[in-house]
Design goal:
single chain, de novo design (two linked rop proteins), 0% strand, mainly alpha, 152 residues, 4 helices
């Protein structure tokens, strides 16, 4: 007797895919922050980056998507500030800051579009996963970001 196992996960939105990749890039960069500042800057950047990813996951499954997307957007703004401070101290290059900024801006636009869609639909009362705008994976095969967002 064969059993069929259904995938309980909804399709992941493009912002999830982009942000998951950005997490790895972030961890590689923060490992290079001087040990004396790694706790102050590195750990805070790592935690905030993970917070954004986890807020996206919660938004996928939550009825209260708008509040979670607003919180994720605020975390993005905190990250922008932290990355600028790290670059000003010379711990990452200007090219690396440019990549981080472009990725955060792209994620912010995606979160904003998803938020707008949910606000228009009145998602605060909706249950279950809802595909965010662009979840038809307009990026490269496998849900990767388009080439314009190459890592330095």
């Amino acid at each position: 007797m064969q059993s069929t196992i259904e995938n309980p996960e909804p399709r992941r939105p493009p912002v999830y895919t982009i942000w998951e990749e950005f997490c790895g890039w972030t961890f590689d960069r923060t490992a290079g922050i001087p040990k004396s500042q790694r706790f102050t800057f590195g750990q805070r950047i790592d935690e905030t980056t993970l917070d954004v990813l986890l807020l996206v996951v919660r938004a996928i499954y939550s009825r209260e998507k708008v509040a979670l997307l607003d919180e994720a957007n605020l975390k993005l703004e905190e990250l922008r500030t932290l990355w600028r401070l790290v670059q000003k101290r010379g711990w990452i290059s200007l090219q690396q800051l440019d990549y981080a900024s472009r990725t955060m801006d792209q994620a912010g636009r995606m979160l904003g579009g998803w938020r707008k869609q949910q606000a228009e639909k009145g998602s605060e009362g909706r249950a279950g996963p809802v595909d965010p705008p662009g979840s038809e994976n307009r990026g490269a095969p496998g849900g990767r970001a388009l080439p314009e967002n190459r890592k330095p």
